[in-house]
Design a protein that fits this description.
CATH class: Mainly Beta
Number of strands: 12
Radius of gyration: 17 Å
CATH superfamily: Electron Transport, Fmn-binding Protein, Chain A
Shape: globular
Number of domains: 1
Keywords: Oxidoreductase
Organism: Gluconacetobacter sacchari
CATH topology: Pnp Oxidase, Chain A
Pfam family, one: Flavin_Reduct
GO molecular function: FMN binding; riboflavin reductase (NADPH) activity
Order of helices and strands: HEEEEEHEHHEEEEEE
Largest sheet: 7 strands, antiparallel
Structural class: alpha+beta
Helix content: 10-25%
Number of helices: 4
Strand order of the largest sheet: 3-2-6-9-10-5-4
Distance between the termini: 36 Å
Protein name: Flavin reductase
Amino acid sequence: MNVSVKAPLPGGLDAGSARRFRDGMALLAGAVTIVTTDGGNGRHGFTATAVCSVSDMPPTLLVCINRATSAHPHVLDHGVLAVNVLAGAQQALSSAFGSRSKTMEERFAGGRWRRGVTGAPLLEGALACFECRVGRVVEAGTHTVVFAQVLDVHLPGEGADGLVWFARRYAVLPASC
């Protein structure tokens, strides 16, 4: 069934309900990732939990990027990105890439990186790295939703513990669960 919404639905949440919405979303655990790009404007990256699989035929990820993040225009301009899925031991790196006070040079200094086939930085020791080309782009509220076409997948940290964001804090999921 193909459903399309042409106009906003009536009766959405009011401003006072926004806090309840955020509180509810805090209970939706998300894998912690660092999304990176490189190109004419240099290396850029940010921490994200709003990443998910769309399809495996063709392999496609959905990546939500807050338009206020400094990396936003560079991801779109470069047209490529890497989604680096963090291991449990990489919490400090996640915090650095989530900090507005750190320069890109300071952020990237905290990890060991290599260039992928797209040119996007891939994090050594990440659980998985997805190299992508920016596909369809949709504006939604404060974010840009990118449908990213996966070009290559690397599994350098397969078997290591995972890092998730839940209830507004980090949690480590043992690989053996």
